[in-house]
Amino acid sequence: MDTDRERMTTVAAAGDALPIDAETISATIYGALRTGSGPLDLSAMGDAAEALRGHIALLLLSARESAGRLRPGSIEAHRLRARLDGIEQQYRRPLAPAPLAAHVQVQQLARDCQWMLARHAAEARR
């Protein structure tokens, strides 16, 4: 998606200038996880996916930087990079056109975002 590339470029250019707002990200995650609590609304899922992608783009930069500080070749470094690669691959996929598939995709984006936010918070406490 062109918007994904633009977002990653903008976030990368800003670097550390963009703060990670845990409250806003948590609220987005909570809202995304609730998208399937009623009728499956493809428009609402699209909005949730876009918001999550924005947060994931920001968190991926921080997570990749953190992964770069790990001992090269270590199991921990390999596992973290593999997880981040998987998250980035999911992040780049366009939203599925079928409502149930889109719902599953949004749920996965929310869980990935939640995991990265928790990891970021743990890193910030160190």
Structure description:
The protein has helices at residues 2-14, 22-33, 42-68, 75-92, 99-125. Helix content is 77%, strand content 0%. It has five helices and no strands. The radius of gyration is 15 Å and the shape is globular. Residues 1-17 have low confidence and may be disordered. The chain is mainly alpha-helical and 126 residues long.
Global shape = globular
Task: Write down the overall mean pLDDT.
Answer: 86
Counting helices, strands and paired strands, the structural category is mainly alpha
The span between the termini is 35 Å
Number of helices: 5
**H-E string:** HHHHH
Provide the helix percentage: over 70%
Number of strands: 0
Can you tell me the residue ranges where pLDDT is under 50 for at least 5 consecutive residues? 1-17
**Main beta-sheet annotation:** none
Question: In what range is the share of β-strand residues?
Answer: under 5%
CA-based gyration radius: 15 Å
